[in-house]
Amino acid sequence: MFSLITTGGKFIKDVETHGAVAVYAPLEGGYEGRYLRRMRAKGYEALSISARGLGDLQAYLMDVHGVRPPHLGKKSKSSDACVGSVYYVPPIVGTQLDNLSPRRKGLILWIVEGFVLTNEELNYLKDLAKSEPRLKIVIEMGGERYFRWQPLVQSIAA
Length: 158
Known about the structure:
InterPro entries: NAD(P)H-quinone_OxRdtase_su_N. By secondary structure, this protein is of the alpha/beta class.
């Protein structure tokens, strides 16, 4: 039987040990915020993003990459492409890690709707957590009747 109030100690230990974990939470929500708050209290900075529309994970998370704003049916009058200019955006995780306070243990990247990611993308996230020791990744993979987690490696293999 699970207690209603948990300290989150085992969850935090598993995240620190494995680097990347898959989370299955009740669909009514609330549990994610509690565990994220406990991770912040343990000295981590938090960043929450959605997996939908990420595109190339490696470019979006760790490299400077180009984006085009929606053109909304209008053509540009310059000699550039008709769909608009390319704007270069800094990497979201790389920038957060570079600007991390020395008082912080690391960065928690909490990804919601992780069930849309392919196995290759999940493997990349697993390897990214291994290669960058200050980065811990939590991916919400689906619903469950109670809050549970497992190492991302086990979730990929299933």
